[in-house]
Amino acid sequence: MQIHLGEKIRELRKRDKRKQEDLAAALGVTSQAVSRWEANGGYPDIAMLPAIANYFHITIDELFGYNSDRQTKLQSYIEQADQISRQKDPAALIVFLRNVLSEFPSEWQLQYRLANALVSLGYQKSDPGKIVTRECGSSQYNAEYNAQNECWKEAASLFEKVLKKEVDDDTRTSVIFSLMLLYAWMGSQENAERTALSQSPARVSREVLLAIHPAKTRKNTAARQSFA
Q: Which of 110-137 are b and which e, b meaning 16 or more Cβ less than 10 Å from the residue's Cβ?
């Protein structure tokens, strides 16, 4: 139990991007105590277990690794959310996801889906003629109008939370583009720049590599296709 508990505390702390000092401060113990737990040099007092579980938004059973039922339940919720999403009813999906998030408040899969639903609902509630303005033959986002969209503001906040989690590359890319679009709509240049600058620099890309030797690349591509 001791070994498993220490590993679980470390796993949860890293999941939530928290430092040992953060957990120690929340529990009223020293960071050295947390370090000992994670190194299997001791374990927290039993009276402290509810506080630890609450800190990570899980049950005591989950703290000890008994989470198979939890994962099964979470996956069921995700599948239900995706079914509702296919019905093109973002309002119903939002109600469902808010209820589920009260049970699983730290799950990025749910936060991600809620953010996307809020983007859709925010667009439905907006006047398309006001989202973009046209002056002197040019178009631009109506930042003053769009910045009042509560759905879009909440969606941006949720996307920011998802970016702090350990998510797959496709989801991260989707979140970044969604955030950049929302910030463009709402005229939040500062947040857009912060989001862009926080990402890894793109040193090479498929398009750049193909442009280096276009003739040779086309020749090689044609040769590969002839063998397909």
A: bbbbbbbbbbbbbeeebeeeeeeeeeee
CA–CA distance, 7 with 164 (Å, rounded to integer): 21
The burial of 159, by beta-carbon neighbours within 10 Å (0-12 exposed, 13-18 middle, 19 or more buried), is given as buried
3-state secondary structure of 183: helix
* DSSP string for 195-222: HHHTSPP----HHHHHHHSHHHHHHHHH
- CA dist 137 → 55, 113, 115, 127, 141 (Å): 55, 37, 33, 20, 14
Question: In angstroms, rounded to a whole number, what is the distance separating the alpha carbons of residues 58 and 50?
Answer: 9
Q: Backbone dihedral region of 89: left (phi > 0), alpha (psi from -120 to 50 degrees) or beta?
A: beta
182's tokens: 């929302």
Tens-digit pLDDT profile for residues 127-184: 988 998 877 767 888 999 999 999 999 999 999 999 988 888 889 989 999 999 999 9
Sign of the Cα torsion 173, 176, 182, 184 reads negative
> How far apart, in whole angstroms, are the C-alpha atoms of residue 207 and residue 204?
8
Model confidence pLDDT, tens digit, residues 74-98:
899 999 999 999 999 999 999 999 9
Whole-prediction pTM value? 0.62
75: amino acid identity, one letter:
Q
> By the 8 A CB rule, do 13 and 44 touch?
no
**Residue 71 amino acid letter:** Q
The sign one gets for the Cα dihedral 28, 31, 33, 36 is positive
